[in-house]
Amino acid sequence: MDQTAQVRKAAADLIAAFASNDSARYFACFSEDATFLFHTLPQPLLSRREYQALWAQWQAEGFAVLGCESSNVQVSLQGEVAIFMHDVATHIRLAGEEHQLAERETIVFRRQGDHWLACHEHLSVVTAA
Question: Do you know which InterPro entries this protein is assigned to (predicted)?
């Protein structure tokens, strides 16, 4: 499998784990030093552990991922780093209410031996042109 296909598979695994609300499998797709920049938060999260703690808090408040679809995928290989960009349609439940989200996401993957782990995620809202 070529490197672009490996990155696409790593991203597909991450998205599938997220879509199925499988926290353990989802967070296993990220390096421990991964960083996260989400438009819904006032500041970046600077580690996987920090995001996991926030995720657990969200779940305690009734958050759940009900589905997630990726489209318009682009992959850019940069040596030991790959940039995965896509549009993402997410269906969530938050405090008993369901929401459909349309966002754009960049996930940076870093080669770790023979596989790729996400080391940065940036999520932004899709705005009308």
Answer: NTF2-like_dom_sf (IPR032710), SnoaL-like (IPR037401)
pTM of the entire structure? 0.94
Interacting residues of 125 by C-beta distance below 8 A, sequence separation 6+: 39, 102, 103, 104
* Whole-number Å distance between alpha carbons of 50 and 128: 32
Res 12 pLDDT > 80:
yes
Side-chain-side CA neighbours of residue 31 (13 Å): 19
What's 60's domain CATH number? 3.10.450.50
Residue ranges making up the domain that contains 116: 3-125
Q: Which long-range contacts (CB under 8 A, 24 or more apart) does 111-115 make?
A: 111/80, 111/81, 111/82, 112/31, 115/6, 115/10
Find, among 80, 88, 127, 92, the residue nearest to 106 by Cα: 88
Residues 42, 78, 29, 93, CA torsion sign: positive
Write the single-letter amino acid at 88. Answer: V
Please list the residues that pair with 81 across neighbouring strands: 78, 110
d(C-alpha 29, C-alpha 99), whole Å: 25
